Amino acid sequence: MALLNRPLDALAAVREDLAAARRRDPAATSDVQLALTAPGLHAIWVHRAAHALWGRRRGRLPALMLAQAARAATGVEIHPAARIGRRFFIDHGMGVVIGETAEVGDDVMLYHGVTLGGRSMERTKRHPTVEDGVVIGSGARILGPVTIGEGAQIGANAVVVKDVPADAIAVGIPARIRPHVAHPDELVDPAIWI
């Protein structure tokens, strides 16, 4: 997971995010349209600034305030301490919650209503780790310090409380691993698995 430290890195990240959103959103018509109207992109861009503040002396309160402003504007709540990789895309955005100790890899896509939440009140790693290339369907809940393996797909409204292996499809409440029925090179919308 890449962390951004320089202004040029931030500009490059914005360009990457826009390109990733264009690839994943068939309704997108231009980078300008996305930059002006995509709440998922706005949320991640604000998160990057809040995350940078979080690591600074006396930066935690401003980081939390910035995160709350983003939540009010976008409907997406990302704790400033959460670690999020490159080319992250939240389609629609509304209702997404990403907890404090969550770790999200590169090229991950979330649909609206996804929760990466905790199951413990302990001050420890209590939120999910989502590896590179994962797609998480609308309304899915991934709870606790579980790992979602690289390239996995989580179906809409699934409740995941155990690790999901790489390239697996997890569906249901509680989530179970579904046998593959598509070619591994195909990106299948997880909503079809409900």
UniProtKB/TrEMBL annotation:
<dbReference type="InterPro" id="IPR011004">
    <property type="entry name" value="Trimer_LpxA-like_sf"/>
</dbReference>
<dbReference type="InterPro" id="IPR005881">
    <property type="entry name" value="Ser_O-AcTrfase"/>
</dbReference>
<keyword id="KW-0677">Repeat</keyword>
<dbReference type="InterPro" id="IPR001451">
    <property type="entry name" value="Hexapep"/>
</dbReference>
<dbReference type="Pfam" id="PF00132">
    <property type="entry name" value="Hexapep"/>
</dbReference>
<dbReference type="InterPro" id="IPR018357">
    <property type="entry name" value="Hexapep_transf_CS"/>
</dbReference>
<keyword id="KW-0028">Amino-acid biosynthesis</keyword>
<comment type="pathway">
    <text>Amino-acid biosynthesis; L-cysteine biosynthesis; L-cysteine from L-serine: step 1/2.</text>
</comment>
<dbReference type="InterPro" id="IPR045304">
    <property type="entry name" value="LbH_SAT"/>
</dbReference>
<dbReference type="InterPro" id="IPR053376">
    <property type="entry name" value="Serine_acetyltransferase"/>
</dbReference>
<dbReference type="GO" id="GO:0009001">
    <property type="term" value="F:serine O-acetyltransferase activity"/>
</dbReference>
<keyword id="KW-0808">Transferase</keyword>
<dbReference type="InterPro" id="IPR042122">
    <property type="entry name" value="Ser_AcTrfase_N_sf"/>
</dbReference>
<keyword id="KW-0198">Cysteine biosynthesis</keyword>
<keyword id="KW-0012">Acyltransferase</keyword>
<comment type="similarity">
    <text>Belongs to the transferase hexapeptide repeat family.</text>
</comment>
<protein>
    <recommendedName>
        <fullName>Serine acetyltransferase</fullName>
        <ecNumber>2.3.1.30</ecNumber>
    </recommendedName>
</protein>
